[in-house]
Amino acid sequence: METARPLTPSTGRHWLLSATMGLGHDRTIRPFLENAMDDKVVSIGGDERSSWFERAFLGTTTRVYNFMSRQEDRSRLGHAMFHLYDGFQRFPDYAPGVDLSKPTVNSRRVDRLLAAGFGSRPFQEISRRPAPILSSFYLATQEALRYTELPVYGLICDVEFNRVWLPTQPKHPRLTHLVPTQRTADRMLATGAIPDRIHVTGYPLPVENTGIDGSVLRADVAARVSRLSKGSASTRTLLFCIGGAGAQLGTAFDMTRQLAPMIREGKYRFLVSCGSNAFVRDSVEKEYARLDLVPPQVGVVYGGDKTAYFRTFNETLRSTDLLVTKPSELVFYCGLGLPLLLTSPLGHQETKNSDWVLGIGAGESIDRRNLVAYLEEGIGSGRFVERIGRGLATDHAGAIGRILRLVHGG
Q1: Comparing C-alpha atoms, which of 308, 347, 343, 346 is closest to residue 324?
Q2: Which of 105, 255, 266, 328: CA 20 to 30 A from 249?
């Protein structure tokens, strides 16, 4: 990957497309809001021009996923239910020489939806005011290809992906693929995409956490290394991320209970990221109260809407020392010099994300059996500080500049 350069190589405008499903698609697209048409993200299924059927279809899909995700860590039955559900979304493993281009049943379903005009209304306005399209959701990408004649740039949010992320005919001349890793590019090629339309850009990290010239990132990393170094008397901050579905709440409670004595002593600070889910926020605050834990040693990261949440989340990351998360798109936040402590993956794509970040040494699977001893050993051995360097080596911090240069030139 090339070295990061200024983030805005041109003053070009672009359309942004995402979906009202969880946090990952929105998190991926929001770094490009500065030059967005109408200064917003057009959310498929959540746009004011979406039909009642589109809203209902995507709303139901989201509710089913959220429900199944929340069952995973509640009981053995819940675990079995989720993995049965996930089995329908699994995709074949990539290996060199394997042909993954054959469309799937889900690919055909998308074709039928688009043939019926699903999601077409917002694109009438988009076509009248032409600009390049950036999309972080496969359905929005394929809608843009069908309903407009504009260049479309598809952002991939995971290391590996389902075949449905590409059109049935994958060699589309107006579609450019912006992928986070070489592994993603290899799979994209095996899926049948045009080779010179695949670009390894890295994952777009928020400029609030990098700075245009990288100065914010350097300052935050230096402070984090100091706090995590052996012998430091500083309070270490752990940020536990609950996904948009509200999954793994029980895991957050277990960690809070184990850390409570050390939190009271001021050795650790424990924060739980709740998205814009008020139920999760209230549940976490009740658990804090039950354990007699009070701010600022504990807290929640919450926003009444996604915009407010992402702003608060990005600000909180700057003083975070250890990021505890399932292996969602947040695995790429190792590029901010954040050591990743991974909980169990939810879904096949998260298993692949986990394999990638563990493989490069920027994260590790968290050991919750004796959490305090595990954290103290990671600090004392210098292992967490080593993870910082491994994450920075991925150079995702330069992704926004690379992507804008591809979209607008410069």
Answers
A1: 343
A2: 266
